[in-house]
Amino acid sequence: MPPKLSLAISVEPEPAPYNSTNMASIRMSDDSLTVLTQSYNPVSFTTEGMQRKNDGLSYNISEKDIRILKKLGQGASSIVHKGFFIRENKFVAVKKINVFERETRHQMLNDLKALCDAPNAPGLVAFYGAYHVPESGQISIVLEYVDGGSLADVQAKVGKVPENVLSKMTAKILKALAYLHREKHMVHRDIKPANILMTLSGEPKITDFGISAFIDSTLAQCNTFLGTVTYMSPERINNQSYSFPADIWSLGLALVELATGRYPYDASEGPLQLMIHVLQEEAPLPPAGQFSEEFRDFVRQALAKEPHRRPLAEQLLGHPWILKYADDPVSLKSFMQCAFNPHDKLDEIAVVFAFNYYAHLNGGPARMRDLAPLYSKHSTLRYDGDCAVGRDAIMCRLGGVAAMHAGFRVAHEVVDVACQPLGFDGSALVNVTGQLVSPAAGNKPQPFTEIFVLSQVQAGEYYVANQCFRLIK
After folding, report:
1. Which domains does the chain have, with CATH numbers?
2. pTM (2 decimals)?
C-alpha cells in the first residue's frame, strides 16, 4: 500500500517577511525611487545608481554607462538583455524589473540582498550595480554576462551531459552551494538547470536569487511555499519546515535530468499530480548499467525523502562520485564549445571595436596614434565625400577630424552596432549608427552612419580594409 498522501499547500498570506504588514512600499521624488520594507535595508535608486540606506553601500552605475544590445530571455518577473558596460569595456546582463508590481518588487529586493552580500563569490554570478529608468518605471540590475548560457540551454544542444563532465560541474556547483549555506545562511529555493549558468571556459555560476530565503543560523528553518514546483523537495511540497537540504534535493533532480536528457517525473498531468508523484514514488535514480554506481549513490543520497538524511553540500564534495572524476582529463572548456556561437563572438568583436574606436577619436589628436595600427597601406577611408588611401593619409584625415571636434567639444556617441560576416575568411561588415553631440546650448545631435569592413589577419586580429563615414542630413 502506498504511503498516505499529505499535501498541504498554504494559500493563506505567507509569514513575515511576505505578509501585508511587511510588504515593501515605494517613495518617489523627482530624482530617486526608494523601496522601503521592514525586512531589508531601504534601497534607493536614481538614474546614477543604487544605495542601501542604513549601511551606506552604494553602486554607481547609470543608464548612460550601459548600451543595451539584444534580448537574452524573459521570465515571469523580468526581461534580461545583453548589454555593453562602456566604462569597463565588457559585456553584461541587464535584468529589467517592473518595480511597481508587488511580488516582483519583493523578488528584486531578495535578489539585490543576495548579490550585495556575496560580492565576487566563486560560483555565483557577479553584481555590478542597479539604476532606475523613470520613463519605463523599471529597475535595471546589471550582472555578469555568462557567455555559455544556462545548463538548460546546454542540455538542449547536447541532449545528455556525459557523466564525467557532469561530475566536474557538480563539484564546482557544490562549492558555491556550500558558500551560500554555510557562510551566508541562504537557501536558494530555485536550483534548476535554468538557474545554473555556464561560461565558455567551463565555470558554473548560480543565479536568480529572487526567492532565496535568508535564515538566522544553520539550525533555522523556512516555512514559505515558493519556487519551481518541478524541482521542489518533498518537505516543501508538504508545507513543512525546510532548510539547506531542500537545495540538495533540487540539485539531485537537476543532475538526473541533465544526465538522462529528460525530467525524471511525469509532469504531463499538471502540478498537483506531479507533487503526488514526488511524495509517493521512489527517488528517480539514473538507470543501472547506463551510469556508474557512484553516480546512482550520489543521487540516492541527494534525493532522500527525509531531509535530515541528505548530506550537506560540503559533505557531498567528498562523495566517491565527485572524487572518481577529479583527475579525469575531460575539459569543461572543451565540452562547453557546444555553446560557442561564432556569430555571437563576431558581434562582440564588432561592439568592442566600435566603442573603443570612437573613444579614441573622441580623445582628440593625442589619442590618434592608438588608431594607427588599425590601418594598412591598402586601407581606404571615405569621409563625407573625401577619400584617403593608406595609413598615413587616413591618420592625417582622422587627425584633422579629431582636432576640429575637440575644438568645438563635439563627440561621437554610438547608438547601435550591427555586424554580419563576409565570406569564410573571418571578415566582417560593421555598421555603426550614432550621433555627433555637443554640450553647446541649442546644438541638436547630428546623426551619422559609418561602415567598416574588418579583414582578419589571423584569428582574433583585424585591420580596417575599408571605411565610409556619412552625416545624415
Report:
1. 20-144 (3.30.200.20), 151-339 (1.10.510.10), 342-471 (3.10.450.50)
2. 0.84
